[in-house]
């Protein structure tokens, strides 16, 4: 493994006894510094990407890291053998790093990430394929803005990152990703893109714990098929077949494997299959004539699907309502089938399958658990440094418990913690003028895990929970205090110690509310069309309008090529009658009409919708406020007249196939004559 020295910017190779290192995650831009460039620093300084390398080293060096790993210059991409090895070990590189610095070159700290005005959610980093594993693998992740200013950590912003990526927040709270089904993990990559199509598959190898040689030029679909074949070798989870194609492929015949992660965009609720119920017939394998698999089959009573069509159960259930998922198969010969209607996965209330009494047993291999090269638990005493940032230096440490190591720096207090101690240390800070105070308690849990801390207002003794409980995390505590708020976050360093950095957020800051908020996932939502075509009455051609805006804005909105997901619950603390304004318009952003959609009551409540023509280019905000002022209830569906040439119908239906949310918006147009 090659690492870059943060002081000299020289590369060094390590084969064993790899030192503690930081790692950089970023999106590639013009003139990145390559392995060849970094050999000569004079040459490297001439490239625009040198500033990124230099600033990353400075950041790591500031926190006592002697070494850093940066993919652009630590891999010799001119060597195909080295590139293949690097791709297969990339997840391990990020997993073994002490801390991952995520540099967002297109984000400013001007607004807090929970503020809809923030550019954090729009960062290109959240849209790239390779950065998914760089978000999941490291133990510690720190987000930095374009000026290398700290935005927050994966822990402090876990609700925001979850809303942006559709990855359950429990993942960022420590839940093992291997407890999620194959379909769920695939869905996390559905909206991500890569420069080379094959990388859509290669970038997922570490997440599924498989390896395969990269073959650039084979195409994205073939690479993704190889990935699924590798996953099948180590897993019998049938959720790998729980995908839906685009609606344009409704009449096509397919096999059982998906062609890209995009086809798993609706699969975030699909649980792993319960294959034990069919015993030794749960295994399946590839042959030269396709995938050989045992599936419970039943006839479908829907005549619209035609003859020779069966429903095949995946043995998977929906996390939302417990329904069983089935896909459609059409019989082509005695034992040969193809998957038909690939854009649909049907719901069944019960699993209707004739299961034989099978006595033969199947012994499974336990998966090999990958471990980090570095033991994250403290083996010896750990130093905790409590640093007052400039904004908080009007506070003085007035009450502290020993053993404290006094520093010549008046803004720092240091404590040496032993992993075997049962003592809890107390640091109290107070302002001399207003006497406002807060107290930080630091201790080592009996689990011999890393030290923990908790923040408490005031200078009185706080009754801490028993030592065997661990309700507090060691990062991202924010509490209100008089004229503002106190924020404490933890930075890891290259010397096994920890830094608590104490910040004061002024009351006048517009962002203070966003620091203390927690986003809640929506309970319901709609799938809506991303594009609407209105065909001309005379002659050929048509007018195409597309979804250009959603008001009020929401981090949970997802947009794809042919559809979009619109959350409907008031997750942002909005009105008690949740609704959204969808704006459709031309490619240049000129609005044509607005659609008002909402659900009355719970996720199973009454849906309503209405269409408003955008006269005089009325904005979505104007339409939204006019509805709030009138507070009129809408019908489940309704007809409208767009102009003297066109009429249409807007309706909301409950979902009948696998999709995000609970309902589906349908827009239909026809001639007014």
Automatic annotation (TrEMBL):
PANTHER family per record: HET DOMAIN-CONTAINING PROTEIN
Pfam families: DUF8212, HET
Domain DUF8212 intervals: 222-296
Protein's name in the database: HET-domain-containing protein
InterPro entries: DUF8212, HET
Residue span(s) of domain Heterokaryon incompatibility: 21-105
